[in-house]
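ok here's Aminopeptidase N:
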Amino acid sequence: MSLRAKLTLGTATAASLLLLAGTATAAEPGAPGIGDPYYPNAGNGGYDVSHYDIRLNYQPTSDNLSGTTTIVARTTQDLSRFNLDFLLKVSSIRVNNRVASFTQSGGELVVDPKQSLRKGSDVTIVVTYSDVPSSHAVDGYTAWKRTADGALAIDEPDIAQWWYPSNNHPTDKATFDVSVAVPDGVEVISNGLFNGTAKQINGWTRWRWRSLKPQATYLTYVAIGQFEVRQSTAPNGQPVVNAYSLNLGENELPAKASVERTPEVTEFLEQSFGPYPFEAQGGVVAPGIGFALENQTRSTYDPAFFRRGANTYVVAHEVAHQWFGDSVSVQRWRDIWLNEGFASYAEFLWSEHVGEGTAQENAEYIYDLYPADSAFWQVLPGDPGAADLFHGAVYDRGALAVHALRVAVGDEAFFTILKRWTQQKKYGNGTVEEFIALSESVSGQQLDELFQTWLFTPGKPAAAPGAATFATQAVVAEPKAFQKIRETHVLLDSHVH
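and the structure:
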């Protein structure tokens, strides 16, 4: 090599070193929250997750959960350190195969890798941990639900940090592999496709599940305990997995009479919402929840929903969430109407379908149910506030807002709006404002006044959607469906989610 070449190489090397040094200096910590006004510490900044591999062991008698979560992510900035949302006791973390230092406080797991991470780089994070989830609380609340024969990792808006580290916000969806080893004779149910069990030499069995489509962290769950697991095939060829706790008592058969109809309900809702967006179907019925939740591909129900017989309305509500909430998720939690208003309206559609009351009859009944001076009318579905995220008004007044849109634009435009929304936003996120803009675009109407009245204005509107003025309205008889719908919305002082 010539002297000139050596000098040129030396100059280039020095420049490269200066560039790397400059990059390292520019690296900054990722934000400890994703920027959601309702939950400032939810999620984290600086990276996007593409996949979680959650491999755990769980002992029901002691509530001890141990194992490893591997996170595959990509950086969105130069990172000197980053946060994960997690409560359990961590023993080690590796970032790109190198041991990383870390600290934990208040549900924030702060990871300090050995080297700064360049923007746009692939990152593999391996977190090993062991702890008792039920021993942890946030603001006095424990989302992990220990049961007589196991546990349920089920809740909204927050459950992930009680059992796996994550970027815990709906705007960072990922695919998932979940496998949990438990003592022989215990069952484990989770999302997506059932990938079988594997016997282990220590008298334990590992249950394996895989979610192939983007999934929000709070919609990822496990139900562990004594279950009857039923596998079948839906008319569209998809696998159906339903599971029923062995502790349902007299609610067992009504629960089965409801949840076993999930493929039928799904097939019906496809007519209004478009093709079902996921790879599997099913449901789980387990005591100790107090609500129903739309875990992706496999909603979970408290058995009390079936205490008066079969209840397909709650199934319609949760299946509707597979489009509104799961496939199309909130951009920020203030957009919750996009989840609950439309899932509640799905109950109206189901009521029409089974001949137990039209959507108009149900809308008028709900409108008349709450007097003008009720606090119900002071909660705004379009921006309810964190304290009222699951208030009855988000559901019931939210459904009235959906019906008001249907009345205003007509059925053809209305169902076009729903299908276009679920297709354009599929596996992504949306805002109330984006939905309003789409509604105006499809209908060709200016709808500000309608949405302002039903979503953003306190007080009871002058009339039910599609009805005469309040002063001339007749008393509306309770539709046949509404007893079941009301039970769906009011259970153990809680709401379906």
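+1. DSSP finds eleven helices and 22 strands in the chain.
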